Each structure stands twice: as structure tokens, then as C-alpha cells.
Amino acid sequence: MNILQLRIPPLPQFITGGYAMWTPGTQHFERTFSVYDLLLVCSGTLYMTEEGQPYEIGAGQMLILERDMMHVGHRPCTEPTEVYWIHFKHEPPAISLAADKIDWTHRVMEGTDFDLQPREQYLYLPKHGSFDVNVTRPLLDRMLKLRKSLTMNRAMDLQVLLGQLLSQLQASMQRRGQDRRSYKVAEIVMRYLEGRLTHPYHAEDMRRELHFHEDYAARCLRRHTGLSPLQYLHWIRVERAKQLLSHSPLTLHEIAADVGYDDYNYFIRVFRKSTGQSPGAYRDSTLGYV
Fold first, then answer.
1. 8-18 residue pLDDT tens
2. How far apart are CA 279 and CA 290, in angstroms?
3. Phi-psi sector, 52: left (phi>0), alpha (psi -120 to 50), beta
């Protein structure tokens, strides 16, 4: 696997990002610019070439297009393709190296009160690799939600989220071939909650059915998603509600019940907290774009 080594500090800086559902026939235009373009594909396949090197980025895969390198879509999408994209800036340029050349155990020396500069450190990112859609999507959605309503007092928060995303991609790469018990537990908890979308959350029920102590299961889930079990349940309910609001004729009250909220007013509060909009406003905003 080809790895990009970025010297830190300085930390990568978030510039902008977005989400798109590319229809069949859509093809990326040719471009060269001085920032990194991180592409994360949740479904479908994106076809990109960078400096003559073609890549197929399938579902659950990512690609980092490097600064000052020409990239272009060498083939149109053949199926609906769901893509998140993040632009970030970093100096100096990345260095490319093989995964087996990374010394993960290399110790960063402690600073002293005589030091005037931080010790040399590195961030390692896969050039083209895989990621867990269910783990990464909540973080991406939080970033894009914050970007839409960004005020100066939250500017640092957005940069921190970019750091979390890149750290998550590095950790995912590092875990390959290693023991991933906590990740596996988190996956089990996610599948459990997704299978009980309309059921009330009770920690004792989860403990009894999964045979994990609820505190341990919650720690594993939070480690890999940043969310508690209840927060994750709310997130998947809101995602389901967004689909129904965009693609079904159900009333708002029917959608609330369909995703597990008997209390319609509570549904509105949860939905607004997650998206920044009421369910009705969200439905209105999707008209003509489904």
C-alpha cells in the first residue's frame, strides 16, 4: 500500500467539503490545484486518474488526490455513486512511502524548557485504501453540518474534526492485520442498534442480548464513531427519516412513528439538533433534488 507521510506540525487545515450523489454518466472535470482532495465513496464507483495513474474508488474506499497534480475523471460513473469530498491544505508536501517502512513504535522525544520548536512528528495516510462507511459517515456529517453554519467561535471545532477524520483513517490503516477486538465489538453494537431501529434503547437489554457489559460496549462504539449507543441510535433514525422525507409521501407524523419516535415533538427536537432544520424544512429543501 502506498502511504502519504505528512510532517506535523503544522496540522492539515480544513478548507471546505461536501457531499454528492453522482448520477450515471457523471464524470469529474480536469483540474490541478494546490490543495489535497480527499474523496470517500460510500456507494457506487468513482473513476479518477491522477498524473496518468488511474484509480477505481469503490464503495467503502477513499483516495487522496495530491496538491499540484493534475486529476481528471477518466470514465463516467455507471451507477449512482455517493461521494463525500474534503479539501485540506498542508505544508510541506507529502512524501510517498511503502506501508512496511513506517515505524509505528518510534518514540517522539519529550520536549524540554530549552526547546523552541516542537519535535518532528508525522501523520500517515493511505493514498488509496478502504474505510468503514458506518464508522466514518457520522463524523463526515458532523463536519458538513458545522461547515454550513460555521461561526468564528466554532472555527476551531471544525479543524479538530478534520484531525479526527485523518486520525481515524490512519488508525484504520494501522489496524489492518492486527487485533481489532474493540472495532469488532463496535460493529456488533452498530448492527444491534440498526436492527432495533424502532425499539427504545435500554443498556440492560443490549448487555443481555450481546453478552458485553454495557460500559465496555459503549466505550468501543464511542472509540470508533465518537457516539454513545443512544446517540448512534438517534443518528441512524435521523438518516432513515431523511430518506423518507426525500423519497416517500408519508406525513411527518407517520415518518416519526416509522423511525421509532412515538413523541412527535421529541422527533422534531432530535431531527433539528442533528441537521439544523425541522423535518418539514428538510423535506422542502429536497424538492426537485431527489
1. 999 999 999 99
2. 16
3. left
**Residue 177, Ramachandran bin (φ over 0: left; ψ between -120 and 50: alpha; else beta):** left
Q: Which of 174, 205, 239 is the last residue of a domain?
A: 174
Query: Mind listing the pLDDT tens digit for each residue in 158-205?
Result: 999 999 999 999 988 876 644 467 778 888 999 999 999 999 999 999
What is this structure's pTM?
0.66
Asked if residue 168 is part of any domain, the answer here is: yes
Q: Could you tell me the maximum CA-CA distance found in the chain, to the nearest angstrom?
A: 67
> pLDDT digit string (tens) for 75-87?
999 999 999 999 9
Does 153 lie in the same domain as 56?
Answer: yes
Are 45 and 92 part of one and the same domain? yes
User: Residue 266 and residue 287: Cα distance in Å, rounded?
Assistant: 24
Split into its structural domains, the chain has a count of 2
Cα 13 from chain centroid (whole Å): 16
Q: Phi-psi bin for 246: left (phi > 0), alpha (psi -120 to 50), beta?
A: alpha
